[in-house]
Specification:
heterodimer, A: about 290 residues, B: about 300 residues, about 70% helix
Chain lengths: ~290, ~300
């Protein structure tokens, strides 16, 4: 009995040992070629003078002037105001979709019937259907919201409510009714049940939704160009301006310096919270 | 969870008041007004603009006139007859299919390469997720520099071949769309990789062990066991890549701006350009075309991918 299982185990281990040299080297080589080359191009070019950066190539700068270039784009690209502009539209939009989306999802997850099913179908249709980007501008003008942060927040909320409703409704259905029932017997009304019982339980799924939506809004330039282009600074909008002017003037060193600085906030967040972010995204998708 | 004491229950409140009319109290427990704020935002910022699409596509709305008049199907006729409508539709479809193909090939390849849970693999996985976190516009500019005729990629190829290479990666009317789709796939392959990795983790080790004992080769095991069992991950990855890239803009705008000669002009690029020229009705018409294309394609695609899962 004891000798039988050792053979397959040994047979299984043999090829793994053979791979254990090749696989890590292959992984590192692939990463170096596929990621290392573009990233090095960015860092090296961002460290060059304008003359040296005219034709971006992989050679190291003869004279590193990364900090000088950072200082230039930080001022010329209005990075500080762009950073706060990005926050100004992202934070309220994300909080808004999370709160309104979970409220709706709780009801849709608990009530049966044709009406709820129809509202749910409408509510999640925005996951696939593209927003009507031109007529949104017209509507915002009619509402007096064109070019305002409030208009941009509304547009983002309209786009990403579907995502929240989809994720949270699925999650609500896994929460046992008894937890609500217990609070209700205590005399709690729907608002109290929602705030005290449901919202805290939703934390994992809301974390996933927050990550995804922050990623989309923080990096969005398409909808921002239509709604607030030229009125409010955001990081991607200012990159678009810096690059549009920079390509004309061949200022590759400034474009890449801007790219490094604008990527830092999300990169730092990602590196700090990578384990939670990765597990959050994968848990949401493979269902 | 802290359970508060419930003294009044013990005092013997008649149970009838709790259970009487169960369906009605259930409705009161989950009141419909909770839906109102979300629905209001959806209606104002999503559904009304979408309905406007169906109206303003049939007008002459532009920045050159103050009045907006009904114009029938003029926009469709002119966009159709000068070829931009069909060209943009074709480019968008080809782009979406290529992105879905490359993103899944790269993502699955990476997942298989980095499957084992070693320290090196974990670090490399995190590295491949960095492009996902970056702005797509920034990724586009990086590749514009990398792919210039005298850029870094040609420099590397030239170093290997020993001769000077000046391939205009972004200047071919035939192949540039493929190159741009590869760039799009490069940005998102880390996400596909993560989802394939999660899918691979769900596969029962015993099934693989049994196949191994039967003498199945690695390729046979992948083709007839692991890949079929990855069906849910394939569904998610193909659907998001296909439908997401139909709505693409940033990467193409930053690399080619729709060129050369309109061969990479996605619907969104066209919409942005004509909107900038003040031709709002034409932009709206294309926006409606994009909406209809996604609406018509989305449901069959998702149904097909779902059905593919059921066969197993």
């Amino acid at each position: 009995m004891t000798t039988v299982p050792t053979r397959p185990a040994a047979a299984r281990r043999a090829p793994r040992k053979r791979r254990s040299f090749g696989q890590p080297i292959a992984a590192i080589l692939v990463a170096a070629a596929v990621l290392g080359v573009p990233f090095w191009l960015v860092v090296a070019t961002a460290g060059k003078s304008q003359g040296e950066a005219l034709d971006p190539n992989l050679s190291a700068p003869t004279n590193w002037q990364l900090w000088e270039n950072f200082a230039t784009v930080f001022a010329d690209g209005r990075m500080l105001s762009a950073f706060f502009g990005s926050l100004l539209v992202m934070v309220p939009a994300v909080v808004g979709v999370l709160v309104l989306g979970s409220m709706a999802a709780w009801i849709l997850g608990r009530r049966g019937g044709r009406l709820s099913a129809a509202i749910y179908a409408l509510g999640i249709s925005g996951i696939v259907l593209p927003p009507a980007v031109v007529t949104i501008v017209l509507l915002l003008r009619q509402l007096g919201l064109a070019g305002t942060a409030l208009g941009m927040i509304g547009v983002y909320m309209g786009m990403y409510l579907s995502t929240v409703i989809f994720f949270v409704t699925g999650f609500v259905r896994t929460i046992p009714h008894e937890l609500e029932e217990a609070a209700r017997v205590d005399g709690a009304g729907p608002v109290r049940v929602f705030v005290r019982i449901i919202l805290p339980l939703l934390r994992p799924v809301l974390a996933t939704a927050t990550i995804l939506i922050c990623l989309y809004i923080w990096n969005d330039v398409f909808y921002a160009l239509f709604v607030i282009g030229g009125r409010i600074d955001t990081l991607p909008l200012n990159l678009y301006q810096v690059a549009s002017a920079g390509l004309y003037l061949q200022n590759w060193h400034l474009i890449f310096a801007y790219i490094i600085l604008m990527s830092l906030p999300l990169l730092i967040t990602f590196v700090v919270a990578q384990r939670r972010i990765i597990s959050g995204i994968t848990s949401g998708a493979v269902k | 969870m802290i359970r508060r004491p419930r003294p009044w229950l013990q005092k013997g409140i008649p149970m009838a008041s709790v259970s009487a009319g169960a369906p009605r109290s259930r409705r009161r427990d989950h009141p419909l007004w909770f839906l109102v704020p979300a629905l209001a935002v959806l209606v104002v910022f999503f559904f009304v603009p979408t309905l406007f699409n169906f109206v303003y596509a049939f007008t002459d709305w532009s920045s050159f006139k103050s009045a907006i008049n009904f114009a029938g199907t003029d926009n469709f006729v002119s966009l159709f007859s000068n070829g931009t409508l069909l060209n943009s539709l074709k480019v968008t479809l080809v782009y979406a299919v290529l992105v879905a193909l490359f993103q899944n090939l790269f993502g699955l390849g990476l997942a298989l390469l980095l499957e084992r849970d070693t320290a090196v693999n974990r670090a490399v996985r995190v590295a491949f997720f960095i492009p996902v976190v970056m702005s797509a516009l920034a990724v586009g500019y990086i590749f514009q520099a990398l792919l210039k005729p005298d850029g870094a990629l040609n420099g590397i190829i030239g170093w290997f071949t020993g001769s000077e290479v000046t391939i205009p990666w972004l200047g071919s009317t035939t192949w540039t769309i493929v190159v741009v789709a590869v760039v799009h796939a490069w940005k998102w392959m880390g996400l596909s990789m993560l989802i394939y990795l999660a899918g691979l983790k769900t596969i029962d080790e015993d099934v693989l062990e049994a196949a191994r004992l039967d003498g199945a080769s690695r390729w046979t095991m992948f083709r007839s066991i692991r890949f079929p069992l990855l069906a849910p991950a394939v569904t998610f990855n193909v659907a998001t890549a296909l439908l997401g890239s139909m709505n693409g803009f940033d990467i193409v705008q930053a690399t080619t701006e729709g060129g050369p000669g309109g061969t990479t002009e996605l619907l969104n690029i066209f919409i942005f350009r004509t909107f900038g020229q003040g031709l709002f009705a034409q932009a709206t018409t294309m926006s409606l075309v994009l909406f209809l294309m996604v609406a018509i394609l989305a449901f069959p695609v998702i149904r097909y991918l779902r059905k593919r899962e059921d066969v197993l």
